[in-house]
Design brief:
Layout (H helix, E strand, L loop, with lengths): L2 E3 L15 H9 L11 E3 L3 E3 L3 E4 L14 E2 L21 E3 L11 E6 L5 E2 L7 E6 L7 H16 L3 E5 L11 E3 L2 H4 L19 H11 L3 E6 L1 H17 L4 E6 L15 H20 L4 E7 L6 H10 L4 E3 L13 H12 L1 E7 L4 H8 L16 H16 L5 E5 L2 H6 L4 H19 L5 E6 L2 E6 H5 L10 H10 L9 H10 L1
Parallel strand pairs: 1-2, 4-7, 9-10, 9-12, 12-13, 13-18, 14-16, 14-17, 15-16
Antiparallel strand pairs: 3-4, 5-8, 6-7, 7-19, 10-11, 18-19
Pathway: Carbohydrate degradation; glycolysis; D-glyceraldehyde 3-phosphate and glycerone phosphate from D-glucose: step 3/4
Subunit structure: Homotetramer.
Catalytic activity: beta-D-fructose 6-phosphate + ATP = beta-D-fructose 1,6-bisphosphate + ADP + H(+)
Length: 502
């Protein structure tokens, strides 16, 4: 029988100018009933509030293992950290989700700040850690792997680290390798993932059986939305069995569509590499009469790469993203804009995110909804379709010859090593995950919130996908930069009418 334990929000006096440490003492001292494998505790999200201040905390091993001993952090004797003014992060250190607030408004949601704690809940010599990578490729995965290994070894003296090969299914297909600083020393210079990856293959019970059988007590999971949902299930099963296993997530998606965090690792590299494709398209169309270049970039549901690459390039005439429906015919439509821009400049470049215009393509090819092993909807290839659509319109309707140039750099972008900015970012993520796991936190992911690294409940980053907000200033900046149509002149009926005509 499941027992549900919840507790009310801890209210603090409004006269306190700072968040009282009493609330954190409450969290540290609160001990849930002990559990067995037959009885599980379903904790509500840990929220502490003083009316206008909310802390969204992450689980700790002592929530279901109340008698777990703690030990002094080995970093107390670290030569590297001896120069730091304050070696350990205070329990009162939090990161605000919203940095801009109104003077009289609520202070809002906060998360625990990452970093080393004064006490740890693992003896380094007893740690057996594992690292797994899941889902699609992204620049920086190898850097994260390397820095987890180096962080565990150099900072905490952990020697026993396993690499799980081939994604989640690697847990129960027994594909593992020993990871040491020497083994991973130069993998950050390569693209892809040193540990191999796959989609799907998640069997919670088999995975946790393997974790238990191998004596693994720290699990580092690198992946996106679907991977983190799997990590949450692993944490829940570990908790149900009462195992001293810390489960830490490192969010990965090249689309930058993970909620709460500022951006995902590899995004800066992807935007930078996308410039090469845009530059090539611009050179091509400048060199011919009526040149139209189309560059397809990643962005299944979120157009961040397309938007930021467009803003960075200055050579893009129009950017099409999934969040902003567009239409072809009539005033303010894409065809009219292309014709006008060709008359003015004799060429133009269009950047299209892979998820844009899917309703048009689907209507034309009568495609069935299919999903990949991760549960993502398989997209139709909008790039070639859009190229043919534009070419056919101007050739047949306008009697104008256009020179189409199409570039799809998707796999080139995914496969490259991370740049300097992302390498530093990956180090912060990896070290944050290591500090959190050693301190006994579990069921969390790590990421920057308003440029400060924080521990975030996994549920917060999987509850929704981050998308471009068309009412924000960044999209307005893009529209001003390209001078493209906003397509808002067309109501939904116009879009639906065009779909029906395809």
């Amino acid at each position: 029988m499941e027992v549900s334990v919840s507790f009310s929000l801890c209210r603090l006096s409004k006269s306190h100018s700072q968040f009282s440490s009493d609330s954190f003492t409450f969290l540290r001292n609160w001990k849930p009933p002990s559990i067995s494998r037959q009885n599980s505790i379903a904790l509500t999200p840990i929220r502490v509030s003083n009316d206008d201040f909310i802390l969204e905390d992450v689980p700790h091993l002592t929530h279901f293992l109340p008698d777990l001993p703690s030990y002094p952090n080995p970093l107390q004797k670290s030569q590297a950290y001896s120069v730091v003014k304050r070696t350990f992060v205070s329990p009162e250190d939090v990161v605000a989700e919203n940095v801009v607030i109104q003077k009289e408004g609520p202070r809002g949601v906060h998360f625990r700040r990452t970093g080393p704690r004064e006490k740890v809940y693992f003896k380094p010599e007893e740690v057996r850690a594992c690292i797994v990578t899941c889902g699609g490729l992204c620049p920086g995965i190898n850097t994260v792997i390397r820095e987890i290994v180096f962080g565990l070894n150099n900072m905490y003296g952990v020697q026993d680290i396993l690499g799980i090969e081939g994604g989640y299914k690697g847990f129960y297909s027994k594909n593992t390798m020993m990871l040491t600083p020497k083994v991973v020393s130069d993998i950050h210079k390569r693209g892809g993932t040193f540990l191999l990856t796959s989609r799907g293959g998640h069997d919670t019970h088999k995975i946790v059986d393997n974790i238990e059988d191998r004596g693994i007590n720290q699990v580092y999971i690198i992946g996106g939305d679907g991977t983190h949902k799997g990590a949450a299930l692993i944490y829940e099963e570990v908790k149900r069995r009462g195992l001293q296993v810390a489960v830490a997530g490192i969010p990965k998606t090249i689309d930058n569509d993970i909620a709460v965090i500022d951006k995902s690792f590899g995004f800066d590299t992807a935007v930078e590499e996308a410039q090469r494709a845009i530059d090539a398209a611009h050179v091509e169309v400048e060199s011919v009469e009526n040149g139209v270049g189309i560059v397809k970039l990643m962005g299944r549901y979120s157009g961040f790469i397309a938007m930021y690459a467009t803003l960075a390039s200055r050579d893009v005439d129009c950017c099409l993203i999934p969040e902003s429906p567009f239409y072809f015919e009539g005033r303010g439509g894409l065809f009219e804009f292309i014709e006008q821009r060709l008359k003015e400049n004799r060429h133009l470049v269009i950047v299209v995110a892979e998820g844009a215009g899917q309703e048009y393509v689907a209507a034309e090819v009568n495609a069935e909804d299919k999903k990949d092993a991760s549960g993502n909807k398989l997209l139709l290839d909008v790039g070639p379709w859009l190229s043919d659509k534009i070419k056919d319109h101007f050739t047949m309707s306008q009697k104008m010859t256009v020179n189409m140039k199409y570039i799809d750099p998707t796999y080139m972008i995914r496969a490259i090593p991370s740049n300097a900015s992302d390498n530093i970012y990956c180090t912060l993520l990896a070290h944050g995950a290591v500090h959190g796991a050693m301190a006994g936190y579990t069921g969390f992911t790590v990421g920057p919130v308003n440029s400060k690294q924080a521990y975030i409940p996994i549920a917060r980053v999987t509850e929704r996908q981050n998308t471009v907000k068309l009412t924000d200033r960044m999209w307005a900046r893009l529209l001003a930069s390209t001078d493209q149509p906003s397509f808002v002149a067309s109501d939904q009926e116009t879009v639906e009418k065009e779909i029906m005509q395809i």
